[in-house]
């Protein structure tokens, strides 16, 4: 017997409501739950910094020291740090940002906070030290990077010194414009993120030059030992999205049929919820894992 128009309308309506709820859940997951993950990673790194470097970086995390005021003294070059370990602190007073920077710009590293581009100059060193950060997800450390203006201060703090940079260029480029990461002859800091908000069609780039240095120690800067490189995101491509999406659709579809035929509907709802909830979280994680790294 063909389905009645009323039955078809109810099915379509229920499907649209379910899709809307899933989309709302994905938005909440990508904004709030990923932000909680980033904050937990930052706390772990801050705790280690305060324990191991109480007189330099640890003190900087607990207060708002004056801007570096000594002569420009770039850091000496040193071997690259392992992927995922913390390097120092990035401060941007205009947008009230003070976060630990890690080595690397993969999904796993940027899920913990701003990440230093591998292969660019070390933080505070001569050359172009480049840092990327999320604009929307995982705490959105660079959400308000567009508020920066020419001359605004940016401070980078390592275990051996604090470096003051002043913004001298704000540009929007395409995602393929890698020229912004090219080496420079002078100590430069470059910050990159996606733009506009909730999009990854372009990249917002802030360029700044070093104007002052305050030395803590003549010893080379040290990096952390807390390795945050393990990604909490899916890195298996789109197949996990298809897999979990299919399983979730089957669960909801079969569950709806069971619900209509059952006399113990409360039990059915509980069972469906217990099965669908972990599948939904896995699906969200897989979807967020396919977003651009600095989205």
Overall description:
36% of the residues lie in helices and 21% in strands. By secondary structure, it is of the alpha+beta class. It folds into 2 domains: 36-215, Sortase, Chain: A (Beta Barrel); 233-295. α1 packs across α5 and α4 runs antiparallel to α5. The radius of gyration is 24 Å and the shape is elongated. Mean pLDDT is 86; it is low at 228-235.
What's the structural blueprint in terms of helices and strands?
Layout: H1 5-52, H2 57-62, E1 86-92, E2 97-103, H3 107-110, E3 115-116, E4 128-132, E5 153-157, E6 161-173, E7 188-195, E8 202-215, H4 239-261, H5 265-288
Helix pairs in contact: 1-5, 4-5
Write a brief structural summary.
The protein is an alpha+beta fold.
Topology pattern, helix = H, strand = E: HHEEHEEEEEEHH
> What kind of sheet is the major sheet?
8 strands, mixed, barrel
**How many helices in DSSP terms?**
5
Helix coverage percent of residues? 25-40%
Low-confidence stretches: 228-235
How many runs of DSSP E, i.e. beta strands? 8
Q: What is the average of the pLDDT values?
A: 86
Q: What's the number of structural domains?
A: 2
Instruction: Report strand %.
Output: 15-25%
Q: For the terminal residues, how far apart are their CA atoms?
A: 49 Å
Query: The CATH topology of the largest domain, please?
Result: Sortase, Chain: A
Alpha-carbon Rg, integer = 24 Å
CATH homology superfamily of the largest domain: Sortase
CATH architecture of the largest domain: Beta Barrel
- Helix/strand-derived class? alpha+beta
The neighbouring-strand order within the major sheet is 1-2-3-4-7-8-6-5
The rough form would be described as: elongated
């Amino acid at each position: 017997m063909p389905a009645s128009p009323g039955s078809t309308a109810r099915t379509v309506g229920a499907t649209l409501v379910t899709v809307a709820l899933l989309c709302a859940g994905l938005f909440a997951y990508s904004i709030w739950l990923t932000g909680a993950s980033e904050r937990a990673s930052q706390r772990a790194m801050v705790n280690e910094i305060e324990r191991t470097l109480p007189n330099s970086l640890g003190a900087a995390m607990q207060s708002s020291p004056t801007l570096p005021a000594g002569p420009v003294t770039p850091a000496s070059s040193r071997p690259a740090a392992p992927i995922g370990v913390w390097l120092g602190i990035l401060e941007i007073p205009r947008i009230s940002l003070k976060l630990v920077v890690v080595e690397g710009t993969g999904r796993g590293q940027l899920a913990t906070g701003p990440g230093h581009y591998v292969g660019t100059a070390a933080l505070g060193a001569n050359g172009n030290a480049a840092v990327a950060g999320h604009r929307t997800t995982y705490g959105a450390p660079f959400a308000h990077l567009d508020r920066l203006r020419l001359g605004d201060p940016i401070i980078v703090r390592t275990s051996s010194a604090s470096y003051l940079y002043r913004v001298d260029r704000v540009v929007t480029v395409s995602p393929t414009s890698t020229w912004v990461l090219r080496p420079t002859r002078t100590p430069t800091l470059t910050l990159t993120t996606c733009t506009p908000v909730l999009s990854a069609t372009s990249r917002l780039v802030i360029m700044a030059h070093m104007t002052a240095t305050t030395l803590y120690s003549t010893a080379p800067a040290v990096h952390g030992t807390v390795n945050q490189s393990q990604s909490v995101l899916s890195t298996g491509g789109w197949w996990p999205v298809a897999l979990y999406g299919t399983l979730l659709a089957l669960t909801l579809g079969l569950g709806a049929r069971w619900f209509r035929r059952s006399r113990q509907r409360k039990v059915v709802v509980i069972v469906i919820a217990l099965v669908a909830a972990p599948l939904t979280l896995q699906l969200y994680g897989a979807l967020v894992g396919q977003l651009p790294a600095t989205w």
